Amino acid sequence: MRLRVLTLLLAGLLCTGAARATEAGHVHATGAWIRVLPGALPAGGYVTLRNDGDRPAMLTGASSPAYGSVMLHQSSTDTGMGRMRMVDRLEVPAHGQVALSPGGYHLMLMDATRPVQPGQTVQVSLRFADGSTLAAGFLAKPANAL
Q: Which of 12, 31, 78, 88 is most exposed, with minimal Cβ within 10 Å?
């Protein structure tokens, strides 16, 4: 009887650890903000993602109730011409970090459901390859913010 109880207890502890072993469970978001542009122009979302896990985490997308569409993009400059392209995923290295920042990787938030004003916090759900999500509050800043 004691062995059975001990076995069940150990199995429960292993299941609890496995539930936490999601990609999002090891990633922390800091410094999250969006640049609000005038009118119906898309906003840019920026954040630093830190992965405390032993394996890389793969960011594959995002969503927000404040925007109809959120996509992962990368900006670059080629022969003096600014370019932007959609990317399917972004790796957050094990025990490392990646910054989504102006001029590089960023979230493109389009089709605001209502006007977003500087000073408001916009909720964004970051989605990872294993299906897990990380909720983060992004502070809205004016168009001239750096």
A: 78
Sequence-distant (≥ 6) Cβ neighbours of residue 70 within 8 angstroms:
45, 61, 62, 63, 64, 107, 108, 109, 110, 124
pLDDT in tens, 71-128: 999 988 777 788 889 999 999 999 999 999 999 999 999 999 999 999 999 999 999 9
Q: Are 100 and 50 in contact (CB under 8 A)?
A: no
Total Cβ atoms within 10 A of residue 126:
28
Backbone torsion region of residue 39, taken as left when φ is above 0, otherwise alpha when ψ lies between -120 and 50, otherwise beta: left
Q: pTM for the complete prediction? A: 0.82
Residue located via tokens 């609890």: 16
**What is the distance between the alpha carbons of residues 49 and 26, in angstroms, rounded to a whole number?**
10
Cα distances (angstroms) measured from residue 116 to each of 14, 27, 109: 44, 27, 11
Q: What is the rounded CA–CA span in Å between residue 33 and residue 58?
A: 21
Please provide the size of the chain in residues: 146
Q: Which domains does the chain have, with CATH numbers?
A: 2-141 (2.60.40.1890)
